[in-house]
Write a structure and sequence with these properties.
The protein has 169 residues and is an alpha+beta fold. The chain has 6 helices and 5 strands, in the order E-H-H-E-E-E-H-E-H-H-H. A 5-stranded mixed β-sheet has the order 1-2-3-4-5, sandwiched between helices. 20% of the residues are buried.
Length: 169
């Protein structure tokens, strides 16, 4: 399978938005997606971006039946661990179903790891759904560890009205 991995640019936001929705549909949470192509353009490609992205692309002759050549992506951002310092967080890793099992997901994740190491990061963090056994197995095969199992940490979130309430003095 011929494919390339490259940095995302603002022109990719339409395809990123499409694939974000495809990922959410796969995860059975499509109704949770609130971002738009415009949000991605503003949040990822402004002077101080909130995230960075990479794209997996195939040549025109391998495009999907819908005409897509952008067939995978990863979104990431830099974070910090008070224990170990610089870290990179992979928010999404997605490859369209018909292109899975061809090394594209591994190539995307490898590129995020390379970018993290180049920035002096000592760890790559991400979440995975507990029912997604194929992804869990894939990550474990890459040498990743399950922090929930190993250390008992749970990923927490505070949003919407709860965030507004928390922000009150």
């Amino acid at each position: 399978m011929d494919f390339s991995i490259r940095a995302a640019n603002v022109e990719d936001c339409k395809d990123i938005a499409r694939m974000v929705l495809e990922l959410a549909e796969f995860e059975k949470i499509a109704d949770h997606v609130k971002i738009t192509q415009k949000d991605l353009e503003q949040d990822g490609f402004s002077k101080n971006p909130f995230f960075h992205g990479i794209i997996a692309e195939v040549p025109e002759q391998q495009r999907t039946k819908e005409g897509h050549t952008k067939i995978g992506y990863a979104l990431y951002f830099y974070s910090y661990s008070s224990w170990s310092g610089r870290a990179i967080y992979m928010e999404d890793l997605y490859v369209m179903p018909e292109f899975r099992g061809k090394g594209i997901g591994k190539a995307l994740m490898s590129k995020v790891a390379q970018l993290g190491l180049a920035a002096g990061c000592g760890q790559l963090n991400f979440t995975v759904l507990d029912w997604n056994k194929s992804s869990l197995d894939f990550y474990l095969n890459q040498g990743c560890t399950d922090v929930t199992n190993d250390m008992g940490y749970h990923y927490m979130s505070c949003k919407g009205e709860a965030l507004e309430h928390l922000a009150q003095p």
